[in-house]
Amino acid sequence: MNNLHAKTLDIINLNVTLPNGHRLLRDVSLSLDPGEVRALVGESGAGKSMIGKAVLGILPTGISISQGEILLEGTHLNALTPATRRKTIAQTSALIPQDPLTALNPVRKIGPQITDPLTRIHGWTKARALARTRELLDRVHIRNPDRVLNSYPHELSGGMRQRILIAAAFAPSPRLIVADEPTTALDVTVQKEILRLIRELQRETGTGVLFVTHDMGVVAKISQKVTVLFGGRVVEDAPTHRIFENPEHAYTRALIAATPTPNASTEPFRPVPPALIAELHREIQADDDRFSKRAHR
Amino acid sequence: MVDATYSPRPMRFKIRNLRLWLPLLWIVTLIIAAVFAPIFAPHDPLAQDLMLERLPPFFIDGSEPGHLLGTDSLGRDVLSRMIYGARIALFVSVIAAFSTGIFGSTLGLIAGYYGGWWDRVISRLVDIWMAFPPVLFAVLLVAVIGTGLTSVIFAIALIDWTRFARVIRAETMVQAQMDYVDSARIGGARRMATLLSEILPNVLPSIIALLALEMGIAVIVEAILSFVNLSISSDDPTWGSMISEGRGAIHFAWWVLLFPLIALFLTVLSFSTLGEGLKKQFDPVLK
Amino acid sequence: MTDVMTPPQPALFSIKDLHLSFPDRAHRPLFGTAPRIEVLKGLTLDLPEGRITGIVGESGSGKSTLGRVLVRLLAPDAGQVTFDGKDIGTLDEDALRPLRRDLQMIFQDPMSSLNPRHKVWRIIAQPMKRYRRGGTRADALKALEKVGLPESFADRYPHELSGGQRQRVGIARAIALEPRFILADEIVSGLDVSSQAQVLSLLKTLAKDMGLTVAFISHDLSVIRHLCDDVIVLNHGEIVDSGPVQTVFEHPKSDITKALLDAIPRPEINDSWFD
Question: What residue ranges do the domains of chain A occupy?
């Protein structure tokens, strides 16, 4: 099944639905090449986090994939049994979460929390797992890895914890990483450092990254491709330079315009025009009508 | 950023509701039986008839129609005594739980919100209080202040207020850190007003849950005191005294012991399950 | 430490050598009192009347602590906090209460600062009633109108509103008392860029119309650039830069300010940003 020339990730017409039939993702399609960073951007409720969760198989209870295909390294995830699917995902992908505190178990030391998945899922020896962990901690500029490995999460700062989670995610050199707003809770200076680390490691390991964010500034710095979402629908999908130099959709333009900059010259405080939002909602409605017709046929 | 997604949990609602409804059903049955005891009880609970002593319950040979759950060693109807016993059990549990709750919660709120000197005195008092073994404490107390229902209630409140004080103090301290308490101060509210209108409504779910739990405990304590003959007169039908009497005849009239024991067990279980369920029900789903 | 440039307006707040510390519970010895962590290390600053002053810094810089001293939710260990010529640093809760009408605050998280059990109009009217400045439903509606929310919102509960709408209710509650000073503590950090823009332009318009003095705490220099007249940059409890926004942004004196400005990811392609 595996194809050497396959894309890291291919999502085709993905629909994610609540039990009452309400769609959170509407026919989302996107792809990710090896070594590529694709930003998923949108406002709250746009469904950007939902895409990452669907790919990793960690959708909240009650929310399920109702239609569509997810291909991970050329493998159809839907075709696998749940156990094989979990194993495939665990062996090829990793998550960098938004909140580094809740992602780490507060009563266990950092060390085993990083090395356990390496020995358990990837079948490495303890020595190899530890060596690789040290190497990665060094790469994310943690100066005394032994002290950190023996610490509990609460003994470290937010930026430090996020660096540890980045090291943990990259340690097995996964093919895909989903980064779910990994810098939202951090100070700007720490954010820049974290973005730099993700970029460096991702280029080194050739990992494809789905980078979920609401910040157009972060999009401009980290990604090569962008998917702009609104209400669970793809509004625009384009290379990053085109998104900023020549955005096609009015909503993309509005999002960029609404992002504040420290330049005096830009006009301040331009919200997305209500008329545009109303039009997007009308499009969603029309889309839903078509979808239910399709389902009833 | 908060994703405004809604995740329903239909399965959990069903289980939670069942866990709420079953205990509620038992307690409501108990209340109806207690209130209308003279109507439901087939016999006078005190009426003795030595001709009919130790009759077995209806499903065993030799039972007498009209004495569904049999009779005790003095020929008194077990079912009727249990129904009248429910009266005493419920009366004690409600009054005792509420007095305990009001007293303990007030101290807990004060210690948690005012802090400092108040907190030090109340917390120390709680520590000292909890060093006493509760049942021994209760027996001693009732022995000193005399037997009777009022003494039993008084003893429960005096011993168990620490449960409320401890939990409510901790919850109040958490709530006092919240922004809405600061925003009430910014809006010019007095401290007492803040405590009553902002903090109290938010710790009320815990108080209600503890009240239900406390009712269960009160039923047990009353039964224990009856068992050692320190509640009301031994003639009066209480579950505790029935268990105490039934103990002597367990080999040839086990029903005298077993039925009140089951009633006691179900009641305590119901109250504590109800407490848990209520707390979950009242817990704000929205963060 | 640098002093604020002498502003043309008289200072509404004048702060001299402000010190504040918290007990460090994590390092508390078995016996005795916990050591103290100094959060504010002798701040001296003025907040000129009728201007919007941005207070910026990283987490742990002490910006929120400073804000909470201004509205006297916290009391200073040492130093003077003079509001309108009166030292409010040492007043007790009873003496502060009449002053609190003039010292209002908008919170970071409107969900936790609006009582979830009250309707919107009651949330706004309650403080008005306490200060005998009206407090009827009609008064609350007037305040709602000022923040651009229609009458129909009066009978809703906070959880029925969007983040941006909740923050408008927070603003309505603060301005309903017609205060002289408002502290806005990270009020847009939880909002989408679009609602952010709406809330900020509302705050700016209201502040100018009502002649309010505003302290705007934020970690986001881009927002401060457009909203504020003056800015104070804090780092580890000390002022490292201050002055009119234009001066500070175009000629930052401190490396901290420069680093903060450099770290802002601007929505434009720039390959050399990481270098």
Answer: 9-296
